[in-house]
Amino acid sequence: MYKLKASIFLLVLFAGSILALSTLVELANSTPSQKTTIHKTMNWMFDRPAIRVLVRCENKLKVEVAGTYELKEGENTYRGVLLENGTVETTVNGEAQLKGKWEIMDGEVYLDRGIYVMILSINPDGSLTRMAKIEDGKRIDIPKEERKTYRKI
């Protein structure tokens, strides 16, 4: 369900970007009365219920995912706090580690750690599971036996 909503959102966003770019080109070559008509059309298009619903769905998902997650592995406790403003703060055994940014794309959480991007799946129970990472622009899937799940606390 998340992937479908995210895919629709990205498709609409992409289409809107192309439309906006073509509109900017038209604006540059337009008379003042044509510019007024173009502005009214753009306002009408982006005020459509479908656009508002997609934006609300994406925001709702981000609010649902935001929170504190924890993984206990042996004597180590890994904790990540995903803030609604798109930043993430991590600790290991209470000591601050890397800070970064996070976003939701295609129904997955992307954590940009600076060194690499970690990709986590959103589980039905609200936990997050490490699925892959992106290094040097390449996605590297994590083998099933090595995947770790962070529970939401």
Strand order of the largest sheet: 1-2-3-4-5-6-7-9
DSSP strand content: 35-45%
Helical proportion, percent range: 25-40%
CATH class of the largest domain: Mainly Beta
Which outline best applies? elongated
Sequence stretches where pLDDT stays below 50 over 5 or more residues:
none
Element layout with pairings:
Elements: H1 2-28, H2 32-46, H3 49-65, E1 67-73, E2 76-82, E3 87-92, E4 95-105, E5 108-112, E6 117-122, E7 128-135, E8 138-141, E9 149-152
Q: Mind explaining what this structure looks like?
A:
- With 153 residues, the protein is of the alpha+beta class.
- It folds into two domains: 62 residues; 87 residues, Lipocalin, CATH 2.40.128.
- A hairpin with a 2-residue loop joins strand 4 and strand 5.
- The model has no long low-confidence stretch (mean pLDDT 78).
- It has an eight-stranded antiparallel barrel with strand order 1-2-3-4-5-6-7-9.
- The two termini are 23 Å apart.
